[in-house]
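Subject: Interface between my chains keeps coming out wrong

I've been trying for a while to get a sensible model of this assembly. When I model each chain on its own everything looks fine, but I need the whole thing in one frame so I can look at the contacts. Pasting all components below, labels as-is. Any help appreciated, I'm running out of ideas.
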Amino acid sequence: MDPGIRVQELNAWFGGTQALHDIGLEIPSRQVTAIIGPSGCGKSTFVRCLNRMHETLPNATVKGKVTISGLDIYGKGVSPVTVRRRIGMVFQKPNPFPTMSIYDNVAAGLKLNGFSNRRQLDEVVQRSLEGAALWDEVKDIMKKKSGASLSGGQQQRLCIARALAIEPEIMLMDEPASALDPISTSKIEDLIFQLKQQFTIVIVTHNMQQAARVADLTGFFLMGKLIELDKTEKMFTNPSDKRTEDYITGRFG
Amino acid sequence: MNFLGIGAIVGATLVVLMPLFLIMGTVIYRGIGSITWAFFTRIPQPVGETGGGMANAIVGTAMIMGVAALIGIPLGVGSGIYLAEYGRNASGNIVRFTADVLNGIPSIVIGITVYALVVLIQHHFSLLAGGIALGIMMIPTVCRTTEEVLLMVPQSVREAALGLGIPQWRTTLSVVVPSAASGIITSIMLACARVAGETAPLLFTAFGNQFWNLKLNQPTAALPLQIFAYAISPYEEWHRMAWAGALVLILSIMATVILVRFATSRGMLKGAH
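Reply #2:
Try treating it as a single job with all components included. I did that and got this:
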């Protein structure tokens, strides 16, 4: 029914260096799946392969199959632009468009794709800002102030609102709270809880407590390989693989 | 020790600023006396008659710069955008190399090339040929500085746009370029200021003219040419006019630069930081 994500034999490279090795997994719809692992294990590369962002980097290549509601996004003739319209992404550092107002930031995905009905744009912007729990804070200033004038936590929620506005089916979050203070972090986590009613969410995180708090499933990556993916509870109490246990108990990483 | 250090820094600063002050001082001292209303409204008088001005040269320079801008800005900005956003490959390197070589070509060579390719074919010295010569000179400067300021736009901004399913060309035009607009405008203004005072490329293109010309295909007066012609003349009166012309040229270039600095620092132009 809803789009989950199925990944088969996914490999990714930066030039000659292989960053992902034969990843295969299934991400269920309308749940939160966390990806954890030490720095450089390929977890960011992995989510960037799910919306074809990896290939935008110089010399980056991908091979494999990623299926979203029946569509192989790496299939012949599939345009990365249409794939990305269906999959929202929130990045590690808040990255609002510096020259645009708050309103225009949220509307950007639609406006720059040629959508210009004022009334509908207003509606989408309001709905998205409400969805990102930012509406009350910015509703009076959103047309005057630039996105860059908000605090870091607000900026990140603005980026979430911007991603919501294109009405994606899936949300990818690449360490969305790693640059934020604890209060902003907990706001983002609350938001993830609400968003999973409508979206399939994949979140990369450095922070194991965060994975334990928000995720239904957790996958552990190590050196470009998926070690295991299981219910979060099981991963944190009784992982099947020794390496997962070592990482979770803080023996390395 | 501290005293010595500060002294050295102040001294070095003065040495660096000295040429600028010397130039400004001399030009103002020699030129200010001949700046009259007539200077801006009249055209040159025949030898022996006093009075007259450089109105035709001022307008000529403005028109030549207009043509130059029409050629130099689109090609310079366009190629700069290409280099920054799509040019990390062999063809980008060729463009980059070409721009750098073009930047190093002496301006007189550009003038003579335009003479061969435009003037000889048109059978006329012309305003158009002068504008083409200066426009060509603007391209490499605008191109490379545009590339540099675009590369200063954080990669994360491009990723944000691409991640929303915005096509790359749209990302470039609607997100990246506006973010660098103030830098691009500054680079355009500096390139204009740089070529506005060029004389050599105009010698066999715009050629100069003692009378009014507003036609693209006719030889036209220009401030640097008029200054050159007056400065090498034997007449005291013309020397004074040359100084006045130099003063007007310098002041208008400075005014442009200051205006742009002011506008960009006040964020009056969209995209200024």
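Reply #3:
Confirming on my end. Residues 29 and 217 of chain A are 11 Å apart (CA to CA).
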